[in-house]
Design the sequence.
């Protein structure tokens, strides 16, 4: 009897609870250590992340993991708001399609909103989670591949129809949330048809398929008001030169880009086209090896005016350069358009796509960005994932927060370095011998070898000054 009564009471309680859910939506939870924050219900509202408040700036002394210590969106640094220098973007593929699977093991992440399928309904639900996530995080942009946001169909028509359905919802959600697309792209590397490449495939029908897919991806990026469009040539490269006509493949790639430019103009898409260099992985050799190789490709085919580069820091280190080097190479060639913000592991030789946490590296990155006058219409896309072993929903927020704080700190440091001026002075002094009459003649291309030989005879053996490398490092360290 007692038991029956208990069951009845429990059932009643459950009904009341269910009724409440139906009327007021999902319950709001309030972590024990954060009770004082739960008064303001708007901060915690949400269907997917009810345990996470809207992330706010609390300053460097805050111990709240769910707050910014250095990124203060509205604060002005060197005459521009932090949010306008940084233009952060969440990468849909890592944050919402990353499962933690690796070549040795199954997925490790089981997000509550996932139902384990790749259905259209699931795609829509995920899209809603995406906008709740970026709204709580306080980021203005997002980036996507066509196939991350909507399931691939059996035919191109079916894939396009799926994409249209998800994109219509994305458009509605992003308007409501006041968010924007930093860039869109086509996934031309996962499907087996692309095993020999897409635009550089040895198969004509694959080239055509890739063209049709990119055509649609540009259309939906345009529809969503995307500010850029990225070409990452994951399989545009080779595994063996013995079976490869490299010259023909590169010509095909150039024709593909020309056709993309023509189509972009035809439909009135004004976003910037970006090429994302990477030396290898998945191919042994990717044609867009690094910034210099990509710049040369664009120049050879007369495409420099139509494209800029999207520099990814982990790709930079894979090609044997620092991220700073790649950014400077892009910048001095007038090609710095966007940054895929991530980092590799110094002990690991592949694209681990970790969130950037190195403050010194971030300072050098921001030095290039400031010298470039910012990145707009580009920005910082977090092409970064949680590691396999990080499996809490909270980790998704923490990872982005630390990534944003690292770059914000880099921005503050770089501004200090510029305002201090001693590094610039060190560099100026190093080259001051060229600030002379003969130096000016050399730089203007007016000093021939005979003149310089005459001068050497007049001057004798040159006295060579110190490079002051350690001093430069000391100055850099003083702002970290
Ligand atoms: C992979 C690339 C990829 C591009 C978009 O290494 O970084 O994620 O950014 O296709
Ligand atoms: Ni990338
Ligand atoms: Ni990458």
Sequence:
């Amino acid at each position: 009897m007692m038991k029956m009564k208990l069951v009845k009471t429990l059932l009643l309680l459950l009904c009341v609870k269910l009724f409440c859910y139906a009327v007021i939506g999902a319950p709001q939870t309030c972590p024990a250590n954060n009770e004082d924050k739960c008064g303001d219900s708007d901060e915690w509202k949400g269907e997917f992340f009810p345990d996470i408040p809207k992330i706010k700036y609390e300053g460097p002394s805050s111990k709240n993991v769910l707050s910014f210590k250095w990124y203060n969106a509205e604060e002005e640094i060197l005459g521009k708001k932090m949010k306008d220098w940084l233009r952060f973007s969440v990468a849909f593929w890592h944050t919402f399609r990353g499962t933690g699977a690796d070549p040795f093991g199954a997925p490790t992440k089981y997000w509550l909103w996932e139902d384990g399928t790749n259905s259209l309904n699931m795609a829509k639900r995920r899209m809603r989670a995406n906008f709740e996530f970026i709204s709580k995080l306080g980021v203005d942009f997002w980036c996507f591949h066509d196939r991350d946001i909507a399931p691939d169909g059996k035919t191109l028509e079916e894939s396009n129809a799926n994409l249209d359905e998800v994109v219509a919802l994305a458009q509605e959600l992003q308007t409501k949330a006041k968010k924007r697309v930093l860039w869109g792209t086509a996934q031309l590397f996962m499907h087996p048809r692309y095993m020999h490449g897409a635009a550089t495939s040895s198969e004509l029908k694959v080239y055509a398929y890739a063209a049709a897919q990119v055509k649609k991806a540009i259309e939906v990026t345009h529809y969503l008001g995307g500010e850029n469009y990225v070409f990452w040539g994951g399989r545009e490269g080779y595994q063996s030169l013995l079976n490869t006509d490299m010259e023909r493949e590169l010509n095909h790639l150039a024709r593909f880009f020309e056709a993309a430019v023509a189509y972009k103009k035809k439909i009135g898409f004004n976003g910037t086209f970006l090429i994302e260099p990477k030396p290898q992985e998945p191919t042994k050799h990717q044609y867009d090896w690094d910034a210099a190789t990509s710049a040369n490709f664009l120049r050879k085919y007369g495409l420099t005016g139509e494209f800029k580069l999207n520099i990814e820091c982990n790709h930079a280190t894979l090609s044997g350069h620092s991220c700073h080097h790649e950014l400077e190479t892009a910048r001095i060639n007038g090609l710095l358009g966007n940054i895929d913000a991530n980092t590799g592991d110094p002990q690991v030789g592949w694209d681990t796509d970790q969130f950037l946490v190195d403050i010194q590296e971030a300072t050098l990155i921001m030095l290039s960005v400031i010298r470039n006058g910012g990145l707009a219409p580009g920005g910082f896309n977090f092409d970064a994932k949680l590691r396999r072993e990080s499996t809490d929903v909270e980790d998704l927020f923490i990872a982005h927060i630390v990534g944003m704080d690292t770059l914000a700190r880099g921005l503050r440091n770089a501004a200090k370095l510029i305002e201090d001026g001693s590094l610039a002075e060190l560099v100026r002094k190093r080259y001051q011998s060229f600030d002379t009459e003969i130096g000016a003649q050399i730089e203007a291309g007016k000093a021939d070898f005979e003149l310089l030989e005459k001068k050497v005879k007049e001057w004798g053996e040159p006295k060579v000054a110190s490079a002051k490398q350690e001093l430069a490092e000391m100055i850099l360290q003083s702002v970290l």
